[in-house]
Amino acid sequence: MARPMYSWTKRWWVALEWIEDVLIEGRRLGAETEVYVTTGKSVTAEVRKGSIDRVSGAHGTGLGVRVILEGRIGASSTNDPHLWHRCLDAAIAAANVATSQPWEGLPGPGAKDGPPLSADSRVVPESSETVRLVTEMMKGAAEYPVAVTSGSATMAEGRTMLANTSGAWYEVPHTVVSLSLETICGQSPGYEFGQSVGPDIDPVAIGKKAASLAYRSQDGSEIPTGDYDVVLSPIASSQLLGAVLLPALSGRNVHAGRSPLAGSMGISVADPAFSLVDDPHLPRGLGSTWWDAEGTPTRRIPFISEGILTHFAYDRKTAFRYGAVSTGSAVRSGPGGAPAIGFHNIVVSGPGGDLQEGTVVCAHDLIGAHTANPMSGDLSVELANPFLIRDGNPAQPVRKAMLSGNVFSMIRDIAAFGDDIRQIGGTYLPSIRFKRQHIVGI
User: Fold this and answer.
1) What is the pLDDT of residue 18?
2) Least enclosed by CB within 10 Å: which of 84, 102, 286, 401?
3) Range with the lowest mean pLDDT among 13-22, 199-208, 319-328, 430-439?
4) 180, 191 contact by CB (below 8 A)
5) Is the pLDDT of residue 12 over 60?
6) Beta-strand relationship, 414-417 and 422-424
7) Which one, of 173, 172, 160, 175, lies nearest residue 35 by Cα?
8) Arithmetic mean of pLDDT, 180-206
9) How far apart are CA 88 and CA 97, in angstroms?
10) Which of 360, 372, 325, 345 is nearest to 429 (CA)?
11) Domains and CATH numbers, the chain
12) Please, which residues bridge with residue 228 across strands?
């Protein structure tokens, strides 16, 4: 069996022996066996009421084992890899009582051998560095007369390994730096954050933006209920797409009758200006990977191209069940979770335009986006830090407002895309101007 493509610490090489033992024992028991291991450490500095509250660290290893016995799938996990025997036994027991389904086998070696895509060697979790980052955020916030209510800076590094009895054996490092800050001015809050695989985040800018939003949102005026063009920031747009559109692209939801896009392959489902791609090979992407959570090689998938639906997402289990082919879209929330359909780096794009022409309502964030109905696309959410702009004049804060509409209708009627593309978790997108949306003044 081939060794991993990247080297580990001495401690990890010792661990490799028991990983091979799991595969050998699983094969002896007549099961296709898959081992998924994560190990990592992190340091976090937290801010409360304008001062550093605490600095904490964490480290650990997680083991997930999945087995397949004649189409019956079982899985188990543990945070103590020394208990791998029990973990394997539990996975076998789960498979024995599972319902058999069509299964064509775990993938063998085949993922592209390339450099790490989501790791930066400059990220070394240290308490002094996280303290510096939160201090710099507070320095940025100090440019406005606001109070810092909370915030944090986290630096993390880790590695993920996947091996199976078909001969696949992959290993990759990953790193992340996450910053966030919440402020308040009077009764007006402001929030901003940033994430990156490396230390290329400007903490002063994050603090300044959080403070600016709170300061500029003071003394908001009521807005008459009516229809307005609405500009949603990358944060707000990503929330709506993540809550409604992405679940509708899941092959499992399509075949289970839970996707409004079922039966729409090859036809228009969005404005011709709208394209949505999953690019797992994006350099320095938080979700970038050469292989998915099952070891299937990943590739760039244009799910919606100029408004036309072209693909649904599949993992191996769903693909085998419905006679499709895996799109390399299996993801895991951690070693404790079985693979499920997901996405790596969603990139939303479209032609640019004037976001502030005429009268528009702009929102930095949404409150309650998770309550949007993924089946119908209907939503009713509160706008966070809303502003009214008329013909490019200075933004006027709005006291409170709600957006009521339908996500699937919204993406069919887009006025323009901004040039402010930013990374929101695993989504990359700009601000988007949606035509004639119903705003309720409250």
Assistant:
1) 87
2) 102
3) 13-22
4) yes
5) no
6) unpaired
7) 160
8) 97
9) 15
10) 345
11) 10-203 (3.30.2290.10), 220-442 (no CATH)
12) 437
Check whether 5 has a pLDDT greater than 70: no
Burial of residue 166 (CB within 10 Å: 0-12, 13-18, 19+) is middle
**Which among 17, 283, 295, 66 has a CA at the least distance from the CA of 160?**
295
pLDDT at 6 over 50: no
Rounded CA separation 155/285 (Å): 16
Q: Give me the mean pLDDT over the 143-150 stretch.
A: 98
**Nearest to 92, CA basis, from 107, 73, 106:** 73
**Residue 284 main-chain phi, psi, to 5 deg:** 65, 20
114 vs 411, which has greater pLDDT? 411
> Partners of 361 in the beta sheet?
230, 388
Whole-angstrom CA distances from 226 to 33, 204, 207, 394, 403 are 58, 38, 34, 21, 10
**pTM of this prediction?**
0.93
Instruction: Determine the pLDDT at residue 11.
Output: 42
Tokens of residue 307, six digits: 């408004």
Confidence label for 334 from pLDDT (cuts 50, 70 and 90): confident
pLDDT tens track for 215-262: 999 999 999 999 999 999 999 999 999 999 999 999 999 999 999 999
CB atoms within 10 A of CB 348: 22
Residue 385: how many CB atoms within 10 A of its CB?
Answer: 23
Distance CA 305, CA 130 (A): 41
Taking 60 as the threshold, does the pLDDT of residue 339 lie above it?
Answer: yes
